[in-house]
């Protein structure tokens, strides 16, 4: 049960046919190009990878983002993780 006075973080993601993604709870678009979007959401960093990706709609005031293109993956980084995934050598030499 939710305690009164606590802020509830809202973040929803809806994908349609791997061609379109609608998100809520978007706080910031860190970076984007036609192959990767890196977003700060209410629940952490989200990376969307694919081809021919582009923004259909963006409203940071309302926390809304719509992306179209060929979506290959959606990856949430662990809380406290740096903004980039480590490569093979980075994983071997922690």
Can you give a write-up of this model?
This protein is mainly beta. Helices cover 5% and strands 53% of the residues. The chain is built from one helix and six strands. It has one helix spanning 88-92; strands at residues 13-16, 20-23, 26-32, 36-41, 44-59, 64-76. The longest helix is centred in the C-terminal third of the chain and has 5 residues, at 88-92. The model has no long low-confidence stretch (mean pLDDT 85). InterPro entries: Spore_YabP (IPR012504), Spore_YabP/YqfC (IPR022476), YabP_sf (IPR038705).
Query: How does the overall form come out from the CA principal axes?
Result: globular
What do the pLDDT scores average to?
A: 85
Work out the number of β strands.
Answer: 6
Main sheet makeup: 6 strands, antiparallel
Number of helices: 1
Describe the strand arrangement of the main beta sheet, using strand numbers.
Answer: 1-2-6-5-4-3
Low-confidence stretches: none
Q: In angstroms, what is the radius of gyration?
A: 15 Å
| Order of helix and strand elements from N to C terminus | EEEEEEH
Class from helix and strand fractions:
mainly beta
Beta-strand content estimate: over 45%
Straight-line distance between termini: 40 Å
Roughly how much helix do the residues carry, as a percent range?
A: under 10%
Protein name: Sporulation protein YabP
Pfam families: YabP
Quick recap of the structure?
With 94 residues, this protein is mainly beta.
């Amino acid at each position: 049960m939710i305690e009164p006075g606590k802020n509830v973080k809202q973040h929803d993601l809806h994908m349609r046919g791997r061609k379109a993604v609608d998100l809520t709870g978007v706080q910031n678009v860190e970076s984007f190009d036609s192959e990767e979007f890196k977003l700060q959401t209410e629940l952490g960093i989200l990376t969307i990878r694919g081809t021919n990706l582009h923004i259909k709609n963006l409203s940071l005031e309302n926390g809304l983002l719509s992306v179209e293109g060929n979506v290959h993956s959606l990856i949430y980084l662990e809380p406290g993780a740096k903004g980039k995934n480590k490569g093979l050598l980075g994983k071997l030499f922690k």
